[in-house]
Amino acid sequence: MRKLPVQTLLVALGLLFSGVAFGQGQGVSLNKVIARIDNYYVLKSDVEETKQSYVGQNQPAPPTCQILESLVINKMMLAKAEIDSVVVDDKAVDNQLDSRMSYMIQQFGSEKNIVEAYGKSLELLKSELRQQVKEQLLVQKMQQKITDDVKVTPREVKKFFESIPKDSLPYMPAEVEIGQIVRFAKATREQKDVLRQRLLDIKKRVQAGEDFAALAKEFSEDVGSAEKGGDLGFAKRGMMVAPFEGAALKLKPNELSDIVESEFGFHLIQLIETRGAEYHARHILLRPDYNRLDVNEPTRFLDSLRTLIVADTLKFAKAAKDFSEDKGTADAGGLLRDPQSGSSRLSMDGTMEYALYSMLDTMQVGSVSKPLPYRTEDGKSAMRILYFKTKNPPHTANYTLDFEKLQNIVTANKKNRAIDEWFRKSVSEVFITVDPEFNECRVFGTSQNSASATGGN
């Protein structure tokens, strides 16, 4: 079976945004360098990989010069981040990488399938990708710093809308607002007993003198910490889920906890040390098999909740806030939001999750569905009920109805201009060269007549 390159995994992980470069990843060191920005490089394969990422998302790729300019700007942000001492927390990098690897495991079906596809262990893949994830977060932080003061007024939105010729106004698809209440499938008593016993056996081995870190590497199902011997680093109080933190803070240094159950599974915890309001712990985590969980209890719970909502004894938004186990939507009264714009109005077209689209097609506005099977982005089994709150029919773009979308466009344009202006002002602070092959690209605002363009050191 042909092994996939790590660069392909980067695309699959969705690490590209606004033309972000891949960095100097494994497997491309011999590729041609087409731009240098201080100690950072843009490779010719970066341009090609960026084009392919658009193809993979069924979107037309921008012109080559536009891609190159975006890559150069992003590398310049990394160089400036070093100059300005902008940093990202290692824990944020680890969390981002763990989240994306979990998503990949769901997409590939198992860790084994990923290992077979790329010919490398998950640990090696993560180590190769970690620097690129860190660079992405640094670029995001620099973008936020540059565009933090960007504000858009209703007058600017109206001016933009009125500048669009009436015969060029886009036709907008139907838009809907949908709420959900989610309850996770539960491990059976038998499954819980098995996991507890396995951790008790591991605890006895530690007490008998075996190394906790070695056992964590062998048995822990927390991919992020297992490779570090279960080490979670220092955590401030309130960072960890309550059952974990409560158990950890009761321990003395080097002491082992009883078996602790949390929403993530079952933990064996060892406290390493405390430092003021922070504590340093490690753990071994075992999770139930999400494909064999009991959905009867969440189904019954949601069915009872639906009865109260349909009878108007309980409002959906309050029920979502009080009972939904999906933290991402519970506080918003269960409303789903577009991950890009943050809007609660979702386009009812090909971009919508197929199962959701199909279900809405059978529902009326104002209705609440019966409990439905649901799989979260990180692969957890659950049940949910859906609330079809509103629907706007397809229409020609309208200032009032589509204000939020228009505002997002104006904001994005304004942020892009702010980044372009920042680039022009900052270009003299870093060393930049671009290969003569790309002289026609106006990377520096004017076409280049020489083999390179160089700023100050």
TrEMBL record:
<feature type="domain" description="PpiC">
    <location>
        <begin position="173"/>
        <end position="273"/>
    </location>
</feature>
<dbReference type="InterPro" id="IPR023058">
    <property type="entry name" value="PPIase_PpiC_CS"/>
</dbReference>
<feature type="region of interest" description="Disordered">
    <location>
        <begin position="326"/>
        <end position="346"/>
    </location>
</feature>
<dbReference type="GO" id="GO:0003755">
    <property type="term" value="F:peptidyl-prolyl cis-trans isomerase activity"/>
</dbReference>
<keyword id="KW-0697">Rotamase</keyword>
<dbReference type="InterPro" id="IPR050280">
    <property type="entry name" value="OMP_Chaperone_SurA"/>
</dbReference>
<protein>
    <submittedName>
        <fullName>Peptidylprolyl isomerase</fullName>
    </submittedName>
</protein>
<dbReference type="InterPro" id="IPR046357">
    <property type="entry name" value="PPIase_dom_sf"/>
</dbReference>
<keyword id="KW-0413">Isomerase</keyword>
<feature type="domain" description="PpiC">
    <location>
        <begin position="276"/>
        <end position="387"/>
    </location>
</feature>
<dbReference type="InterPro" id="IPR027304">
    <property type="entry name" value="Trigger_fact/SurA_dom_sf"/>
</dbReference>
<dbReference type="Pfam" id="PF00639">
    <property type="entry name" value="Rotamase"/>
</dbReference>
<dbReference type="InterPro" id="IPR000297">
    <property type="entry name" value="PPIase_PpiC"/>
</dbReference>
<keyword id="KW-0732">Signal</keyword>
<feature type="signal peptide">
    <location>
        <begin position="1"/>
        <end position="23"/>
    </location>
</feature>
<dbReference type="Pfam" id="PF13616">
    <property type="entry name" value="Rotamase_3"/>
</dbReference>
